[in-house]
Target: Fungal pheromone STE3G-protein-coupled receptor
Amino acid sequence: MTTPENYMIVETHIIPQGIILAVLAPFVFILNFPPLIWHFRNRNTAAICMVFWVMLMNFMTAINVIIWPYIDMRSMYDGQGLCDVEIKLLGARSPGLTAAVLCLLRALARVLNTEKNLLGPTKAQKRRNTAVEMGWCVVLPLFTMLLQWIVQFNRFALTGVSGCQPFITNDWTGWTLTALPLLLTNAVAVYFAVIVIIRLFKYKSSFNSILASSNTTRSRFLRLFIIAFVFLIGITPLQIYILVVQVPPPGAKPFSFSTIHDPSSWNSSVVIPSTVLYDRWTNLGCGLLIFFFFGLGKDAVDRTFATGSAVVRPFEDPVEEKDFLVED
Model:
């Protein structure tokens, strides 16, 4: 780690992209609050998790660009503590977001399953469905945190503007443990997307009546499906490209846990010049999509006004009652 006797000066000015990011990230983060509240109200676990991951990433982006607008460790925080938490969240982000999209598509497929939707789900089925969603959306991301730590090359890397980043070993063990959860989750999500599309065509003549029996509306269903589908077709090719690029080269050294996690070398950080990583922009795009699809809906707008009124009401002046005399 950097010490007072060994200062690191990589650069002493903020790059223009960092200024843009510092403005947009907190703005988009705030925009996503109405959709989050709306999904909480409707107890939509998958959608809550989807919005949560996007909001968390934009919140981290805003924090990082404020703390590290450039790299000059003479006056800047060295990242200990915060980066240890952030890199674990970054490791869980992609599987967590993809799992949320998976569960959203799975829920939509269940809505269109006319064979099991005649009498509605029983309490046992609801509990089982909640357990499945929690397994995908919560347990899987936590598990990927552990897998990332196993193949983590050092404590963390620190980049100007973008902030904390994990370093993974460039071998087949590291590639497999990070790629497997993503590939599995993406494959299942694509499967449910295909099921939804097939059932949309199959039941297009009775689509509205099926939705009515599930206590949902055409607008709500289509908004959920479109955003889940857009996220999926955006996430899947990008993740496949990254995994292909990160395939270990021929002759890569075999994985050794004791060597990688040697206390004398593992407890260190790497300092990298300022750059805005591509995922910072994709997180902003995802946040804007969430706002446009859910934040502008009638339910979300009504809820936002209701929440705003509840906050403002205690500060309003009481209206004075006046007696009006009517003269004959």
